[in-house]
Amino acid sequence: MKLTTIYYGSDIIRYTVQTFGCKVNQYESALIAKAMDEHGYKKTDDIFTADIVIINSCSVTENSDKKAKQLINRIKSRDPMKTVVLTGCFPQAFPETAAKLSADIVTGTEHKESLADMIDIFTGNNVKQVAIPPRPVKKQYEKQKNADMGKTRAFIKIEDGCDRFCSYCIIPTARGSVRSRPLQDIIEETRFQVSCGHKEMVLVGINLSCYGQDNGLRLADAIEAVCSVDGVERVRLSSLEPELLTDEDIARMAAQKKLCPHFHLSLQSGSAATLKRMNRHYTPDEYYDIVVRLRKAFPDCAITTDIMVGFAGETDKEFEESCEFVRKVGFAAMHVFTYSIREGTAAAKRTDHVPHDVAVKRYHAMSKLANELKEAYFRSNVGKTERVLIQRRESEEYANGLTPQYVPVRIYGSDAKKQDIITVQITEASGSDFCVGKEIKCL
Domain map of the chain by residue range? Predict the structure, then answer.
């Protein structure tokens, strides 16, 4: 495609994309950037030298919304003439609030590749645009182009939407119903990412486990499709909903030797009573059974998770149950966060919210436990030999990479380059930060 550079007067029009939130947002920001490039705009990483600032927002927590609002205000207070675009989950979930902000263009979670067209129109007439369609319900996966995110690992979005409606979560409102990407499209993007030099593919989605719910397929079908592409050496999964994994799914996954033995199973709480109020779809016993089955199929796998503390109605007893369950599972890593009230969710209507100081205390206690478990897991890796994907070189002295289990490793004395996959023996663990290893040269 021949690109034409867009000028304002004699100056090139520059843009930047500021991304908040999950891997799906990061992926979609790359699509936005590619469309902007194709329209002749030039990318910069500096929001203050950019003529156009595109904010791809998150709305998982109230703080996520606040960050987007603060960024808009900061930009506009410094330069009222700068074009600001607000897109993503925040305006989709709260359209009236988003429309009142000082952004020049406000749109939701769909048609992000069309943002460049909207910006073209705005630069021509300088008229504010608000285009937020209703929640997407039961329609096909939106056709998209392929884009290289410029990272070591390639993210491939294969699913959008969620119909689970956990009581605390606004994302089903922001993202709509489950839509699964056609297998052939997934294969074509995988080939594209291989052509860009990527060896590890990370499959991402709003509710990845629901892949195929709308078209008769299973997540295992997508995994098998990506693993079948020549040039792919590793395939990793993003967050999974545990109760959706069947024995057949696990067996099919275990047959794919390229699949990384790392499973991020979203837990949220280890208390049965808390899980019920959250409208999660499993009990702690059912969750643990899935962990056991995964560890049987993948003996050396890492199980990681998300843990919420301070959810509405969480008692001291329920919090202790959650801590005990976390110890029982022995997670390799945990993302710990405090509950955030989201307007428009069932939980927001509750009257038994946990006091802020209590929630903070529980956050620190759970985070301490998370660090202890992570340190223990890192120590358990000492002496093992793993294939490590080099992510970056910090200096001539060492390189940083990831094992298939998502353990960060610092390798000294290796001349390996970014994107190389090398054999490494792990020699020590540095707290909960990383492991240290040495390259084993193959004769």
Answer: 7-131, 137-260, 385-439
Answer yes or no: pTM beyond 0.90. Answer: yes
Give the separation between CA 297 and CA 84, rounded to whole angstroms. Answer: 49
Q: Summarize pLDDT for 87-144 with one digit per residue, the tens.
A: 999 999 999 999 999 999 999 998 787 899 999 999 888 899 999 888 766 678 888 8
Distances from the Cα of 433 to the Cα of 92, 305, 319, 398, 430, angstroms: 36, 17, 26, 16, 6
Q: Is the Cβ–Cβ distance between 311 and 354 less than 8 Å?
A: yes
The rounded distance, in Å, linking the Cα atoms of 166 and 250 is 24
410: Cα separation from own chain's centroid: 24
CATH topology of domain 137-260: Transcription Regulator spoIIAA (3.30.750)
Q: Where are the alpha helices (DSSP H) in 39-182?
A: 62-78, 89-93, 95-99, 115-125, 171-175
Please give the class, per CATH, of domain 385-439.
Answer: mainly beta
Which residue matches tokens 């991020």? Answer: 264
CA distance 38 to 33: 9
The tokens for 271 are 């208390």
Burial class (CB in 10 A: 0-12, 13-18, 19+), 211: buried
CATH topology of domain 7-131: Rossmann fold (3.40.50)
